[in-house]
Write a structure and sequence with these properties.
Elements: H1 4-26, H2 30-42, H3 46-59, H4 66-79, H5 83-96, H6 103-117, H7 126-141, H8 148-175, H9 179-192, H10 199-215, H11 219-239, H12 246-262
Helix pairs in contact: 2-3, 3-4, 4-5, 5-6, 6-7, 7-8, 8-9, 9-10, 10-11, 11-12
């Protein structure tokens, strides 16, 4: 009996809680539902809060509290880790209520929800680009926000993911010995993301791809491509004179210089 009493009390409390919530759900007093939805949210009962707030979205449309209902509904979805749904409602809030007190935070959250859903660099990166666009819009619209530094940090992280994706594409072409495609992909990466932390690796792979493309080219294109590889070598060692790849880069330089001399390049 001693053990039964606490268990019975727990069941009684759960039943009472469910009974109270069902009364709220069935109530036609929307002011009461609104008050309870915020109480549930503040109490961490996000499923209950979300259920009530979803109904109130239409009920409070056109009123002074419509933006607050959208805000807490989006926050409830976010708390339940439904970033896609949360982002959608944060975005809707910004669109429908641009002057709302919740608009600034909501614009940030649009980008942050995309950020959290950004996939591995090996997968399609459209969500990553969406996150960058949303966070950049936040920076542009709210340049004095206290979250500007955070937004910039997230953009840098996201952009590095995009460039790593590009690096993987270039590496794939390189591994497949499609050096022409590798040169295009790697050059594009460096142009689009000049400040990436992968810059040294990208530049060295570009040097290798240009060298191998040149050595495997037909005679009509070989000289031009060897010259381009040589230019890439000088660019690389000028920017990274102490690179761990310096020794290997020197081998490419030596071979390229000999091939150009053999072809009669009087400038070497």
């Amino acid at each position: 009996m001693r053990n039964f009493a606490p268990i019975a009390l727990v069941f009684l409390l759960l039943f009472s809680s469910c009974s109270d919530y069902n009364k709220v759900v069935k109530s036609t007093d929307f002011e009461f539902k609104y008050k309870k939805s915020l109480e549930y949210y503040e109490g961490g009962e996000y499923v209950k809060a979300s259920t009530l707030l979803k109904e109130l979205l239409n009920v409070f449309r056109g009123t002074s509290r419509a933006d607050k209902v959208y805000y807490y509904y989006a926050k409830s979805q976010f708390a339940m880790k439904d970033n896609l749904m949360a982002g959608h409602y944060f975005k809707t809030l910004v669109k429908e209520f641009p002057r709302s007190e919740f608009a600034e935070e909501s614009q940030f959250m649009v980008g942050y929800c995309f950020y959290l859903d950004s996939p591995s660099p090996r997968l399609d990166q459209q969500v990553t680009q969406n996150a960058i666009d949303a966070l950049q819009l936040f920076i542009n619209v709210y340049p004095k926000s206290t979250r500007i530094e955070e937004a910039n940090r997230l953009i840098i992280e996201l952009r590095d993911k995009l460039v790593y994706k590009s690096y993987l594409s270039g590496k794939l072409y390189y591994d497949l010995k499609n050096y022409k495609a590798a040169v295009v992909a790697l050059t594009s990466s460096l142009k689009d993301f000049p400040d990436t932390k992968y810059r040294e690796e990208l530049m060295f792979m570009l040097l290798k791809a240009k060298f191998l493309l040149a050595t495997k080219s037909i005679e009509e294109k070989k000289h031009e491509r060897l010259s381009s590889a040589l230019d890439e070598y000088f660019t690389f060692v000028d920017e990274y004179p102490d690179s761990k790849h310096r020794k290997e880069a020197e081998k490419y330089h030596t071979t390229t210089a000999k091939l150009l001399n053999y072809k009669g390049d009087s400038n070497l």
